[in-house]
Amino acid sequence: KQEVTQIPAALSVPEGENLVLNCSFTDSAIYNLQWFRQDPGKGLTSLLLIQSSQREQTSGRLNASLDKSSGRSTLYIAASQPGDSATYLCAVTYSGYALNFGKGTSLLVTP
Amino acid sequence: GAVVSQHPSWVICKSGTSVKIECRSLDFQATTMFWYRQFPKQSLMLMATSNEGSKATYEQGVEKDKFLINHASLTLSTLTVTSAHPEDSSFYICSARVQGPDTQYFGPGTRLTVL
After folding, report:
1. C-alpha distance from residue A100 to each of A17, A59, A94, A95, B41 (Å)
2. Low pLDDT (below 70) residues in chain B
3. Which of A80, B20, B23, B81 has the least CB density, counted as fewest CB within 10 Å?
């Protein structure tokens, strides 16, 4: 089974800080990688999708990079806000198959 | 576009009863749907892969006779938890795969509590 690891498991930062969430995966033959946000007791919100041929994707204050050869991805959040507080999940897919999720990083941004 | 709905959003049932959860792709056809389960403070774990018109493929450790999956049309898959027990209490999320871009769209989830 492919493993997806996210570091750190939890993170608390003051508002305004830039931060980086890390994701690593054991099998580099991925089809794509996604970052999701999950609020407590809620479903998933897709933030960014990076195809295996891409190096990064950007959306607003979010930037995700992918280094397939080393099995790593990072999610960069600029100028964090309290509304960014949530659990961030990294998931990889191997063409046609289900997503393999990491355990997530629980982020708390304090005012 | 690409909206996936789930019904119900939450359900409470007595131990021993059966519960059906529906997953619908509202504006696209999904040949493949996936069912995931999430226990408190854990990540999503794949339970089964459901292909329209064929039997579901279950992950190791998931009882196919307990978690019945039906994918009768290209827009609807159902998960029935039979003879539910308190340990089945969890958050169940479905996703629908869109061919071409090969991406998945997730439903909002169903929280099941078995008393």
Report:
1. 29, 23, 9, 12, 16
2. 1, 100-102
3. B20
The reply to whether B95 touches chain A by the CB within 8 Å rule is yes
Q: What is the pLDDT of residues A27-84, one digit of tens each?
A: 888 888 999 999 988 888 989 999 999 999 999 999 999 999 999 999 999 999 999 9
From the list A68, A71, A81, the residue with the least C-alpha distance to A19 is A81
Tokens of A31: 């089809």
Of B42, B104, B107, the CB nearest to A99: B104
The answer to whether A98 and B44 have CB atoms below 8 angstroms apart is no
Which residues in chain A are closer than 8 Å to B43, comparing Cβ atoms? 89, 101-104
Phi, psi of B98 (to 5 degrees): -105, 120
Largest CA distance in chain A: 42
Map tokens 């131990």 to a residue: B15
CA distance B17 to B84: 6
DSSP state, residue B28: S
